[in-house]
Amino acid sequence: MTTKTSLHVTEEKIENFSGDLLVFCAIKRSKKMVICDERIKKIVQPAWKSRDFTGKKDDFLLVYPTVANPGKRSRFACKRIAVIGLGTPGETKNELREQLRLAGGTIALRAKSCRAQKVLVILPEIAALSWSERAESMSEGLVLGNYSFDKYKTGDDEDRPVPVKTFLLSGTGSPRSMRQGMRLGRNSALAACSARDMANEPGNVWTPEKFADYGKQLAARYPLKCRIIEKREMKKIGMGGILAVNQGSALPPKLVVLRYMTKKKNPTLMLVGKGLTFDSGGVSLKPAAGMEDMKYDMCGGAAVLGVMEVVGQELPPNINIVALVPATENMSGAGAVKPGDIITHFGGKTSEVVNTDAEGRLILADALAWGIETYNPEAVIDLATLTGAVIIGLGHHRTGILGNNDDLVKRICRAGEQAGEPFWRLPLGPEYEKQLKSEVADLKNVGGRPAGTITAAAYLQKFVGKTPWAHCDIAGTAWDFTEKSYVAKGPSGICVRTLAGLVRNWSPLPRKKK
User: Fold this and answer.
1) Overall number of domains in the chain
2) Burial (CB count <10 Å: 0-12, 13-18, 19+), residue 130
């Protein structure tokens, strides 16, 4: 499970630090000695001259103070000294932020491998970033890189890396500014790790009921209100999409609703996350190979709850936030929905279920329609591992985004670039809706192979009306995301940090002229 990483800013002299690992950063220069702290130049210079350490990204130099100064008393009290290469400085602030995150991830991985429990990191001199920004980015990399999930491993393994217990940050900047950035980075990174934990749990443990329990726990811990809509109420209000997908499961569905309310006059942002705790494909059964990864089909819901964890800690003053997680399994039990069945969504729209493996849009449609009618949000963002087609189009490097409001989509894309979680916008228009035309219902749930990601979004668009809305298809990035030092193998916790940054800087959307 998520290591309860302790992270602090220290004003102690680094020479007096007696912990396991003291880390400095070095910046690469072309044909010149790396830029690094004056106190370690004599240690780094021989390695640079021999080309063993050039300061390129992920370069790592580990020395022992007593060995580096034979016969002399070391000026450092620590057990080990490490120097991490940042590479050549990026041209933009976002590139610099990512360099620090990657360095933080490498530091955490190396520290775990040598079983260091107390690590002090000296923030580098990068004028283009404030001390707060430096501390935030480094903190994200350290916490995310320190993540591990070994809850179900038994016995002792001497070769298993041991997560770091305490990270300390230091630098020549304002301690107050560094603490501010450190708190932001720590909050969003730990929340992303919580989302990873949920996704790593097997389907026989992380059930719809677990989603409901987690929502209640967040409401008990923070000033949030939690409501769980049960199966009986879903039937009463007509959530035919969620109920249809749930028909083949022995476990009842849940609609988790978390609310953070400030003032009525403040804008309301609604977040919706797909919570398929296991997706067998239903009657349209998936292939057996790789089906174990379908426990990850709830990563959208996990991310939404992760964002609410950050909201509960930071209490943004000028925004109301409603989070919805429709949670169920998609199984092929005796009562499972069948291809050709017609269902009625919340609000009355009918849908012909052509493929039971296109179930995510069915549960999201109900949540979107009901949430918009109930809370009248200024804007809506949904997160879902919705289509394999997005992986064909974008691979595992960018999240697909579609929407009906340019300003909202641009804001999410900017927040994603800052968080190192890039998006790519796909088109959305009435021409794609033609593929969803049904002969027997208002629409059908798949539009064929062409433009599969777009037609899935076109289906959801039918349930949002004119409300500003953006759909994020995270099927390619929720797990197997771009290999990075701070992204562990398995679930990535994608979009938690992106949406946390978006919420922190939220301002009302411009109103369209009539």
Assistant:
1) 2
2) middle
E-strand ranges in 64-208 read 81-85, 118-122, 166-170
CB 496 within 8 A of CB 192: yes
Supply 451's token pair. 């433009």
493's CB contacts (< 8 A; 6+ apart) are: 144, 191, 192, 193, 194, 195, 196, 199, 302, 303, 306
Q: Is 286 a catalytic residue?
A: yes
pLDDT digit string, tens, across residues 400-410: 999 999 999 99
Q: CA 28 to CA 36: how far, in whole Å?
A: 9
Strand positions, DSSP E, 469-514: 469-473
pLDDT of 41-92, one tens digit each? 999 999 999 999 999 998 999 999 865 555 566 689 999 999 999 999 999 9
Q: 249 and 104, same structural domain?
A: no
Distances (CA, A) of 249 to 302, 331, 362: 20, 5, 16
Inside any domain, residue 185: no
Containing structural domain, residue 372: 197-504
H helices present in 114-174, as ranges: 131-145
Give me the phi and psi of 368, to 5 degrees please: -65, -50
| Rounded CA separation 465/431 (Å) | 17
Q: Are residues 211 and 165 in the same domain?
A: no
Do both 319 and 435 map to the same domain?
Answer: yes
What does pTM read for this prediction?
0.96
Residue 292 lies in a domain: yes
Asked if residue 425 and residue 344 are part of one domain, the reply reads yes
Asked whether residue 370 falls in the same domain as residue 301, the answer is yes
Both 220 and 281 in one domain: the answer is yes
The single residue of 101, 134, 259, 361 carrying the catalytic annotation is 361
Q: Is 512 a catalytic residue?
A: no
The residue annotated as part of the active site, out of 286, 349, 410, 414, is: 286
Q: What's 458's domain CATH number?
A: 3.40.630.10
440 & 364 share domain: yes
